[in-house]
Structures are given as C-alpha cells and as structure tokens.
Amino acid sequence: CRRDIVLLLAFLMLYRLGEAQLVKLATPFLLDPASQGGLGLSTSQVGLVYGSVGVAALTVGGLLGGWVISRHGLGRWLWPMVAAIHLPNTLFIALATWQPQDPWLVAAAVATEQLGYGFGFAAYLMVMIWAAEGPSQTAHYALCTGFMALGMMLPGMASGWLQQQLGYPLFFAWVCVCTLPSVALAARLRIPRDFGRKADETDAPAAKGGATA
Predict the structure, then answer these.
(1) pTM of the shown model
(2) Average pLDDT over residues 197-208
C-alpha cells in the first residue's frame, strides 16, 4: 500500500470540489430569468452555448492537456493545469454580477471555462494512473475511479440549496473558494517531473545502449 494513499485519495475527492458544484448550476443559471439572477437564455441558446460550444472547447482542452503531458510530463504541467481548471470559474462570478444579454459573450465565457476544465482534467486522469501504479494496479485504479465519482456526486448534492441561500454571485464566489483545498493538496504531491512523457527518438539510442550493455 502506498504511504501517500490518504493524500492521493483526498486529492481525487477535492480536486473538482468547486467544479462539481458549478456544473450542477450552470444550466439553471443560463436559463433562469434576470429577475432570478440568471441570464435568461432560451433552451436553444443554452443548447448552443453549453451543449455545442462548451463541449467542443472541453474536447479541445482535453486533447491539448494530453498532448502537453505526452511532450513534457505531468510534473512540469501540473500547476498550469491546476490553474486552468480553477481560474476560469471566476468568469461565472462576472456573468452573475453583470448578467450580459449577448449570447456570444456568454458562449465565450463558457468556452473558456470548459477549455480550462478539459485541460486541467487531463492532469487529474494522469494522477489517477500514477496513484494506481504497483502490483495491484487494476484494483487501485478502480478505487480511484470510485473516489472520482464521489468527488463529483457528493458536493453536487448540496449545490442547489447553497445557491438558494446565497444567490448566484455569492454561490459562484463560493465555488472559487472551494478550489483552494485542491491547490493545497497539489502542493504536497511528489509527481515525477517526466511522468506520462512519451519517449522520443532521442531517448531510444540511450535505451538501446543500456540494453546492450
């Protein structure tokens, strides 16, 4: 058993603590009328903003995250990815405060948040793979996926009640506060700098030479 298992499981539970609450209220926020603190978009506009533009940005972010890790390693990109998944949440505070009526402005904010989420989530998946290393890799990875699901389910259960108590601007501010535990836990992870990096051609001769020796 890994000595840092408690730290790893806490990271898996809390890395998306803010995002788990934001994702539950994002669509209601876009649909609710301005009198209730929302943006008053139509169902078709929400489908375009969140279902099309948002999903496309999420996909691009995930692919980009996987690519940079394969090029340079997770240890080198962990902090940029932590920032990418958390900082764009502040855009929802701005949307809730100013309530813009331009759907394309809203789409740009949602796309930025989803792009950052996809990019930062690549780090989360790689941490799961790193945590599962060892003789019981399959069992460890199954445990990690269970904590991943709990990390999204449990915080989301209270998000609707919190929003009713706080209103949208303060709720999204709370979401940003909830990103701090994952930052603190990420600072304690000791991930190898090149973990996840794909061996390039310059590594091949050295590896062959070592095998020959």
Answers:
(1) 0.88
(2) 58
